[in-house]
């Protein structure tokens, strides 16, 4: 069973065996288990985009992959990002995707339509002791500044190389419980303030 509320799940890494991809899959599965949410899990590898460049945008407009990804954001009420930490900040892959989809496709398009009125939940996983939480600080700030309602609860999983079993589930139930709290808050907030195109 799925509901009319639509939530998008994305990992900010496409690396084989990515801990954040595992975390995004676990979050999507957790949301699906509720039975009242339509869940879309996407892989940024399917949305190949060049490095954002204003001259390139002026010459050719948005890449087709950026248009398709932007449409995914527009048609969902909220999104959940599992973001790896690169040198204490956002991964180049994720920030580049977010920059591209922030750009208008036409002159009369309202600003930041992929983001304004959306609700976001933030996750991170890392082999290190902080779980990637330092990278969530600039991500939270950026999203808040472009009109996204970022829920207060976030999840950062340390020692991620030992956190998941072979099926992709958490080895420790306490992590799954924390994830369920985040997903519940994301869904509840999106039900109240989340917007989406039909």
Automatic annotation (TrEMBL):
<dbReference type="InterPro" id="IPR029039">
    <property type="entry name" value="Flavoprotein-like_sf"/>
</dbReference>
<dbReference type="GO" id="GO:0005829">
    <property type="term" value="C:cytosol"/>
</dbReference>
<feature type="domain" description="NADPH-dependent FMN reductase-like">
    <location>
        <begin position="6"/>
        <end position="161"/>
    </location>
</feature>
<keyword id="KW-0288">FMN</keyword>
<dbReference type="GO" id="GO:0016655">
    <property type="term" value="F:oxidoreductase activity, acting on NAD(P)H, quinone or similar compound as acceptor"/>
</dbReference>
<dbReference type="GO" id="GO:0010181">
    <property type="term" value="F:FMN binding"/>
</dbReference>
<dbReference type="InterPro" id="IPR050712">
    <property type="entry name" value="NAD(P)H-dep_reductase"/>
</dbReference>
<protein>
    <submittedName>
        <fullName>NADPH-dependent oxidoreductase</fullName>
    </submittedName>
</protein>
<keyword id="KW-0285">Flavoprotein</keyword>
<dbReference type="Pfam" id="PF03358">
    <property type="entry name" value="FMN_red"/>
</dbReference>
<dbReference type="InterPro" id="IPR005025">
    <property type="entry name" value="FMN_Rdtase-like_dom"/>
</dbReference>
